[in-house]
Every structure is written in structure tokens, then in C-alpha cells.
Write a structure and sequence with these properties.
Number of strands: 10
Radius of gyration: 17 Å
Distance between the termini: 36 Å
Length: 215
């Protein structure tokens, strides 16, 4: 039976294939999965059995079911800060993550030509993306694609930032009105802004997903 793609599916396939070529030019392996289920299978396929795996605070990874699937699978050594009993243990897991075989993350935005943008409050996520774990795998929904780096930064700060402050229930100007104020609040979660242009030593892999994921 011939399967006919919807207009959205056609657009996503074309966009993803273009982005894969751009990411390859930036020294990153890249794949496209139309569904979250396919993306979970792809990520697990990329990580050999027995690998040490960690991740940051990504809602994408949680909402799509990837972190739960990893726990259920049982073939990996997981460093999961969500299961820490207190802040001290969580910080220890942050540090152990630098020696992980695989670090999983999403992104706040990605440009059509493959620049990946993230903002961070504590810095542990962008630090691990930059240096430490042997491999970094991004799982990014196509809802986070922008045309330019400026637009990607705007998305990270004006869309992801206010939503995450609401999620954490912290006191920042954007929590109060949903708009980025470029603030210096003590609880600001935009303290570190990270642009990944190219992957040294081909550490980074991107799995694009044709479903809206995360913020």
C-alpha cells in the first residue's frame, strides 16, 4: 500500500534532509525521525550496550519518553540527576556526567543551516555539550528550527526562557509577564548562552524529530 505524506510531513522531510546536509558540513552526524518513537529507537541504536549515559534538564527527553525508556531498557549505566536525593548528590552527578560515554540533550533552537543554540542557568548542560562526555546526542523537534542565529537566540530567550521560569516557578521578570527583559535577576536562567557551530572531533550527533517537542 502506498503511503501518502501530509503537507506537513512533506515539508518536514524536505527541511530535515536539507538540515542533515548542513549538519554534516559542520562535522556532525545527523538523522531524521518523523516520530518520537522512531527517535527513541535511533538514540538507543547509537549507544552501545553498557555505555554510561547522562543528560541535563531537557523536557524534550522526558516528554518524549526517552529517559523512561533508558531506565526500562536496563542495558545502560545511567547518571540521572532526577533521582538524586538532594542538591549535593545532583551536583555530583553533574560532575560525573563529564566522564559519560554519551550525554543527551535537546536545544532551545537550531537554525536551518545547523547552528545549535542553548541557554542555561547553572551551566552544567552547556559545559557538558562543550567538553567532557565522549559523545553528545541532541534530540531536537523541528518546532525549534529558525532561519537565522539571531532568530534562534530570540527563540531561546523569548520562548524557552519564560516557559522554563514558569516550570521552575522562580522569580524573574519574564516569569511575571512572559517577556524577556534581558535581566540580571539572581534567579536568571539565561546566564550562559551557547552557540555550537561545528563539532570538534565529531563528538556531536543530531536526531531531528518531526513532532513538536519541548519548549
Amino acid at each position: 500500500m502506498i503511503t501518502v505524506m501530509t503537507p506537513i510531513e512533506q515539508r518536514n522531510e524536505l527541511l530535515a534532509q536539507r538540515m542533515i546536509k548542513s549538519l554534516n558540513r559542520r562535522n556532525m552526524d545527523a538523522f531524521y525521525c518523523p516520530t518520537s518513537a522512531g527517535a527513541i529507537a535511533k538514540v538507543m541504536e547509537l549507544m552501545p550496550q553498557g555505555s554510561t549515559v547522562s543528560w541535563g534538564g531537557s523536557m524534550t527527553l522526558r516528554d518524549m519518553g526517552l529517559t523512561r525508556a533508558l531506565h526500562d531498557d536496563g542495558r545502560y549505566i545511567l547518571l540521572d540527576r532526577d533521582r538524586a536525593v538532594d542538591r549535593a548528590e545532583a551536583v555530583e552527578i553533574y560532575l560525573q556526567a563529564f566522564r559519560a560515554d554519551y550525554y543527551l540533550s535537546s536545544a532551545n533552537a537550531i537554525t536551518e543551516d545547523g547552528v545549535i543554540v542553548n541557554i542555561d542557568g547553572n551551566g552544567n548542560r552547556v559545559a557538558a555539550i562543550t567538553f567532557g562526555p565522549s559523545h553528545v546526542i541532541f534530540v531536537i523537534g523541528l518546532n525549534k528550527v529558525t532561519q537565522t542565529v539571531d532568530a534562534a537566540l530570540a527563540r531561546a530567550r523569548s520562548t524557552a526562557g519564560p516557559i522554563n521560569t514558569a516550570r521552575f516557578d522562580i522569580s524573574t521578570p519574564c516569569k511575571a509577564d512572559g517577556v524577556c527583559h534581558n535581566c540580571n535577576s539572581p534567579e536568571c536562567i539565561c546566564n550562559h548562552i551557547h552557540f555550537l557551530r561545528n563539532s570538534p572531533r565529531r563528538r556531536h550527533t543530531v536526531v531531528l524529530v518531526g513532532e513538536p517537542l519541548g519548549y
